[in-house]
Amino acid sequence: MTHGSGAQPTLEAVAARAGVGRGTVSRVINGSPQVSERTRVRVMKAVDELGYVPNMAARALVTRRTGAIALVISESEERIFGEPFFAGVVRGITTVVGEASRQLVLALVQTREQVDRLDTYLTPQHVDGVLMLSAHDADTLPGLIQGRGLPIVFCGRPHGLAHASYVDVDNTGGARDAVAHLFAGGRSAVGHIAGPQDMIAGRDRLDGYRAAVQASGRDVDDSLVEVGDFSEASGAAAMRALLARRPDVDAVFAASDPMALGALRALREAGRSVPGDVALVGFDDGPLAEVAEPPLTTVHQPMEQIGREMATMLLAQISSGEGRVDQQLVLDTELVERASA
Description:
The chain is of the alpha/beta class. It has helices spanning 11-18, 22-29, 37-50, 56-63, 77-82, 84-99, 112-121, 141-147, 171-184, 200-215, 232-245, 257-269, 287-291, 303-320, and strands at residues 68-73, 103-108, 129-133, 152-155, 165-169, 190-194, 225-227, 251-254, 279-284, 297-300, 328-331, 334-336. The protein has a six-stranded parallel beta sheet with strand order 2-1-3-4-5-11, sandwiched between helices. Strands 7-6-8-9-10-12 form a six-stranded mixed beta sheet, with helices on both faces.
């Protein structure tokens, strides 16, 4: 068979080229683990040489799988495409999904209408599983998806679900380390720009801040806490509010790098030097932290690894054929010291 003949290569042609049976080719193409690596390589070489393209409709009928995975993100386009956290996690997800020859379907959800449309789409007839980022307490999709038996893995511990699979980081411990570092540097009035309180990550980082304040022998003073939404604009607004209410603030832990960079801008506008007048620590360790002026001390969370682990966990659940399986993975964080603190 040649490409110039006009005929599409068949499964049988791939098997003949690879020197294996038709069933072996089928197992390789469908991702079965019951094939040796040597055989898999030989079959995929034949697939590439012949230009074989699987009939996805027929494959779906046999395997009862669509080959598609939905990535649902409950945030605005501005934040998703503008903040390094989302870029890092999505990069990790696409790497693993691509290696598994799966199709990734991106769904951005903000309005009630978008939720309703997505609700009708997220079924076993359209996708094999769901990855969900940035879930808020009021989101109804997680419960609806679970009710259909679709495998779903969350980025972060989800609210209101007694059983769920997720990949998270040690938000509380990372925040505690950040604030302890500020106290250890001789700061006394340490403020906190908290993340949104309708998200567990925002609440966990606030808990870590409070734990570090109490561990230092001080009482938690809520006048030193201002809530943002993880965005740079909210960080700047929160910093201005803190300066107006507590002009004695001499350090700030922001629950995200974008909020820390917003705070840095507001401090500069107010004539406060960093770290001279106010020490500053963020949370993320995205690319902008290192090039900020001054470079930002921050809590490193492994964003690409989060995405890779989420996708790996979901693919394993899909391949097992056992439906939804509850798994949890919490990754460590690390304080990265730079000039801002």
